[in-house]
Design brief:
The chain is of the alpha/beta class. It is built from 14 helices and 16 strands. Helix 6 packs across helix 14, helix 8 runs antiparallel to helix 10 and helix 10 crosses helix 12. This is ROK family transcriptional regulator.
């Protein structure tokens, strides 16, 4: 005999199955749901009634059944009921957005956090203010009954079990329980929070964008992004982000490409970022990184101007970076064997120089095993990739467990 827990789990899974199909294929009729999910019509009727009761789904009209039977009532996601929020933490700013469950943007914000290196407290205080402002925004304009399902905090650094930020070289954090710190704000305390790696969210978003554009899903997908003075990235394997045993999978910027190379902040030498990070490229081109603010992109703009003008030092700097990238991609290919590699950030911006140079360095191996090397392309979402991924992650928590959304009460 099934226990109450077993029955509740089955119901939760079935609710998720139905809601996910409506989200992906709506408007659709109950008969279509039964055919797609394999559930009997009585179960579909009960499940859709529950989804309607908590405001996640509504009926939007009728469609002909194609015979003499009654027209079918169509169901789709109901707007204005559930919001998801994502906050991307960078070296100097908090970039935030909130969407409806169908991805419609409700609010966006971008502000400095003025944190000092190694101290997470100013960041967490500003995150609390962002959450309060975001809640006020998504519940405005006639949306007072909007349920904030989750806030996802996307941070630069390895995130391990219990969503602890194990290490953020960019921010100078070590073993920071960001979720607990943010929850100290009374306005945030009851809101569901998730802490994730920002590059992993960008990787997942770019994977989904590529899949939606091409209709094909690479089994192994690698994403490398130059951002600020770092190089991050992520691996997607069989449709899910692969984080590895310690949350460090996809840290492409810290693949050593020369053990005799420059010292890196991670404690190693000759990491990819020491050749292809913005600071490394600027120094190699004769520019002083300290004279530029990476957030304002004045340094990259000057490097770009020199590169496009044929400045020999800038060209040599990027050629050196391309050799390092080719070495790193060879290691990635031999270990993870990605079918597709996507470059983002400044790697995408200078891909016209990087990709041909990388391919030249890989030419010998490609001549022997041409089908073993990945296809290299540039990103589709650009700077918004992390927010797209984090918002998808937040919405997925609702699609996974619709019963977590409270029933609507009479106004």
């Amino acid at each position: 005999m099934n226990s109450p827990v077993d029955t509740a789990d089955v119901r939760r899974r079935n609710l998720s199955l139905v809601l996910r199909h409506i989200a992906a294929h709506g408007p659709c009729a109950r008969t279509e749901l039964a055919e797609a999910t394999g559930l009997v019509h009585a179960s579909i009727s009960a499940l859709t009634a529950e989804l309607i009761a908590n405001g996640l789904v509504h009926e939007v009209g009728l469609a002909s059944s194609g015979n003499r039977g009654r027209p079918r009532r169509l169901l789709e996601l109901a707007p204005g009921r559930v919001a998801a929020m994502a906050i991307q933490v960078t070296a100097g700013r908090l970039i935030s957005a909130a969407t409806d469950l169908d991805g419609t943007e409700l609010w966006r914000d971008d502000r400095p956090h003025a944190a000092t290196y190694g101290d997470p407290r100013p960041v967490t205080r500003e995150i609390g203010r962002v959450v309060r402002d975001g809640i006020a925004a998504v519940r405005g304009e006639g949306r007072a009954r909007m349920h904030l399902a989750r806030v996802v905090l996307a941070v630069p650094g390895a995130v391990i079990e219990d969503e602890i930020v194990a290490d953020s070289i960019l921010l100078g954090w070590r073993r920071v329980d960001l979720r607990t710190l943010v929850r100290a704000d009374p306005a945030v305390g009851t809101v569901p929070l998730s802490v994730v790696n920002e590059a992993n969210m960008a990787a997942f978003a770019e994977y989904r964008a590529l899949m939606e554009r091409t209709g094909a899903a690479p089994r192994v997908f690698a994403y490398l992004r130059g951002s600020g003075n770092g190089i991050g990235g992520g691996l997607v394997v069989d449709g899910a982000v692969h984080t590895g045993g310690h949350g460090m999978a996809g840290e492409f910027g810290h693949i050593p490409v020369s053990f005799d190379g420059p010292a890196c902040k991670c404690g190693d030498h000759g990491c990819l970022v020491t050749y292809l990070g913005l600071r490394a490229l600027m120094q190699a081109a004769g520019l002083d990184p300290a004279a530029y603010d990476p957030d304002l992109e004045t340094g990259p703009a000057e490097f770009d101007r020199r590169l496009r003008g044929g400045d020999p030092r800038a060209v040599r700097a990027l050629e050196s970076g391309a050799r390092a990238l080719a070495t790193a991609l060879t290691a990635v290919s031999r270990v993870a064997d990605p079918e597709q590699v996507v470059l983002g950030g400044h790697l995408a911006g200078w891909s016209d120089w990087l990709v041909p140079s990388v391919l030249r360095h890989l030419a010998g191996r490609r001549a022997v095993t041409p089908t073993d090397e990945p296809v290299i392309s540039t990103d589709l979402l650009g700077a918004d990739a992390t927010l797209h991924g984090a918002l998808r992650y937040a919405c997925a928590t609702v699609l996974d467990d619709p019963a977590g959304v409270p029933l609507l009460t009479p106004a």
